[in-house]
Specification:
The protein is globular, with a radius of gyration of 21 Å. The longest helix has 26 residues. Helix content is about 35%, strand content about 20%. The strands form 3 sheets. An 8-stranded mixed β-sheet has the order 11-10-12-1-13-14-2-15, with helices on both faces. Strands 3, 4, 5, 6 and 9 form a 5-stranded antiparallel β-sheet that branches. The protein has 14 helices and 15 strands. It folds into 2 domains: about 240 residues, Alkaline Phosphatase, subunit A (3-Layer(aba) Sandwich); about 140 residues, no CATH class. With about 400 residues, the chain is an alpha/beta fold.
Amino acid sequence: MKYVIIVGDGMADYPIEVLGGRTPLMAARKPAMDLIAQRGRTGRFRTIPENCPTGSAVANLSILGYDSRQIFNDGEGRGVLEAASLGISLQAEDLALRVNLITLENGAIRSHSAGHIGNEEAHALIRDAQSHFQGWNLQLFPGLGYRHLLIVPNGEEALECFPPHNYLDKPFVPLMVKPLHPAATPTADLLNRMILESQTFLQAHPINKQREENGKRPANSLWPWAPGKRPRMETLGKRFGITGAVITAVDLIKGMAIYAGMEVIPVEGATGFYDTNYEGKADAALAALTAYDLVYVHVEAPDEAGHERDLDLKIRCIEDLDRRLIRRILEGLAGQGIRAVVALLPDHPTPIVHGAHTRDPVPIAIWDPRAEPDSVLVYDEQSTHSGSLGLMQGAEFIETVLAITHK
């Protein structure tokens, strides 16, 4: 048996008044998602445990059955996973953090992505910033778009950091890094000095001057968050005796795959945004099933639309995911005679109303040709409440996908 897990990042939401009390999933045209619900079993899954940050690292680790609280001290550790995706080997004492290029305006965070700055401009800014900070106890590494990596040798990880996408339009000063115990104060002070110094440097950078002249948001501050140190994770092979591959444009998911012993499959034109190559991801997933048991297909677009609080765009992203990726995978499985379990879920909600992640359970649908379907006929947040899978937690989701039973 083969296994396909399709993750529509952040596509779950709350009822919205202008949609007549429906969610974007309820309003979107998504026949392929509904087909998975009709032929499978449905329910809900609490991907973010209590007392954990509402981050994608926590949620995606949960989908694969890992407890982030046992892997990272703060339950997040996103920067560490992204370091792995960039091929950066961490020493045990290294502190890794995600660092965004963001836009500040009138002392508030206006964009967590500097208007979705492109790779070319972002890489030039990070490269020049690293030169500017030469001699400081930190290293900057370019990633994808606005997402980059910061390493602090011998840094302390007991820090409270604030993901910028959760604090749009909020003043930045109260959100600067806070030490959680005295030993972390020097690290917090270093990071806060970097934030303030980066604003002076970046605001004057020619790239940002040109962006402002062109009516684009400037990338006028670095913003560090998600601190962590090198984790220890058992591979999927050791845990379940299977091989796996991941298809994504997001460094976090790539890093998770590397630590889980999964192969990262590159797809040309996969961007992590609304313009991603849905068809290429679907074709890559089908091809990967010839060599791997489980393929994890991650699409970031609905989450980005949620952070932007763009309702029309979020509905469009859900419909693109359905029409251009999920339908193509289902048709490919049928056409190639591949017998597979197909599972569908978001990693977490990203409600339009406030543009930040929440810890609400997400709707799930698992189509296993060996199992009887339940009575649910459509895939959305409300319908799956009555599904036969109930409310799942911990490793229950991945164990159900893999049909693992406990005596």
